[in-house]
Specification:
Elements (H helix, E strand, L loop, with lengths): L3 E7 L4 H14 L6 E5 L2 E8 L2 E8 L4 E6 L3 H8 L4 E4 L14 H11 L6 H4 L5 E4 L8 E8 L4 E8 L2 E8 L3 E3 L3
């Protein structure tokens, strides 16, 4: 079973409370190996009012949160029964498990927030094998040489015409290689 991203419907205006409760439940119910990241999709917007510009954080999808999880019966139960959760998107109901988001859908949402689908703190380190999924080197595999997390970039060693070559790519252009 691999972890994937799901869209969870919440009461509008309760997204952050649900995120907090779900994270607490995942911890207290020993589901940390099944429920990973919970994200409220938000974007910063600059609003000009009376000639004064203010930066405001606006929810991209009011009433929805993203949950990175392994869809097991127990994990599904924990998320569904978290106070404030009204259900999963992509489930026909009647006990059917929901459909996960496609990687490109997740990447698009997270990239707008300046986040990577890869949990860089836990999954990405020097020496990790990755696959390039966008840009000039799409389809190639490489090894992480160095990370520049503040700028969301990394340097990879790739085999270019039989020669180890260092290339710089953005975090959003890679995924972990599955051996």
């Amino acid at each position: 079973m691999e972890k994937q991203w799901y869209v969870v419907n919440t009461y509008s205006g309760h997204e952050n409370k649900v995120k907090e409760k779900l994270e607490m439940r995942a911890s207290s119910m020993d589901m940390k190996d099944y429920i990973f990241r919970v994200i409220v999709p938000e974007q910063k917007e600059v609003e000009v009012k009376d000639g004064v510009s203010k930066e405001k954080v606006k929810k991209m999808f009011p009433g929805y949160i993203l949950v990175e999880m392994v869809m097991s019966d127990d994990a599904w139960y924990v998320v569904r029964n978290t106070p404030g959760v009204t259900g999963f998107i992509g489930s026909s109901g009647k006990g059917a498990k929901p459909t996960p988001l496609q990687p490109y859908e997740v990447d698009h949402i997270l990239r707008n927030m300046g986040i990577s689908r890869i949990d860089v703190d836990k999954e990405l380190e020097v020496g990790a094998k990755v696959k390039i999924i966008a840009g000039a080197f799409t389809g190639m595999y490489g090894t992480v040489e160095s990370l520049d997390l503040p700028n969301q970039k990394l340097v990879l060693n790739v085999d270019l015409f039989g020669q180890e070559t260092a290339v710089e790519v953005e975090l959003s252009q890679i995924e972990l290689a599955h051996n």
